[in-house]
Amino acid sequence: MLIISDLHAEVDGKPILKGLSLTVNPGEVHAIMGPNGAGKSTLGYVLSGRAGYEVTGGSVTFEGRDLLDMEAHERAAAGLFLGFQYPVEIPGVSNLNFLRTALNAQRKLRGEAEASGAEFMKLVKGHAEDLGLSMDMLKRPVNVGFSGGEKKRNEMVQMAVIAPRLAVLDETDSGLDIDALRVVSDGINRLRSPERATLLITHYQRLLDYVVPDFVHVLVAGRIVRSGGAELAHELEREGYGAIAA
After folding, report:
1. Residue 154: closest CA among 179, 177, 178, 180
2. CATH number for the domain whose boundaries are 2-245
């Protein structure tokens, strides 16, 4: 599904990713862990096509297509979803309008029929109820006045409605209390299927108690220095990143 080969990228002329390689197959959940400044968020932004992140070497193939040759909206339509560490507020745009516009824009680019109003409302209501987000909140402007946990739940509703082929979640556990973490983790697990994959970017092992990954990768100084199973996250929790990278 996703093949990253010897990826190099820089921001404002500063090299951040320095030869990163990774393969993610359908049905798999991969966790990327590492210290601050290792390049974890940069990886997510490069994959999503965020402006200001320049790829200087290597390649990325997504579903057999050259991902780096696609615009950000084309990547989204192809099935790539990026969850933000700090979801932004969008005053004046209701959650419902935002979600329906995003869903139908992607369907249109894929040559699919747009969702009718009734179909959309049934879809979004079901996912919102599963994630503990009221319809009143969905009528409000995107993330405006939401707590950190509510913003992350809202993002999980977005992800569930869009149902991406590959979800890249950048520290989605950041700022969550234990109850919100469980709800958000449940949202991630609901999306797991043999046709989809997830890339979890996180500092801490606690998220991985609820969303058990197939593989854990340690990213240090722009490179993956070690990979293993879920047990590697517990080793990192005990030993820290210094011992692993040494």
Report:
1. 180
2. 3.40.50.300
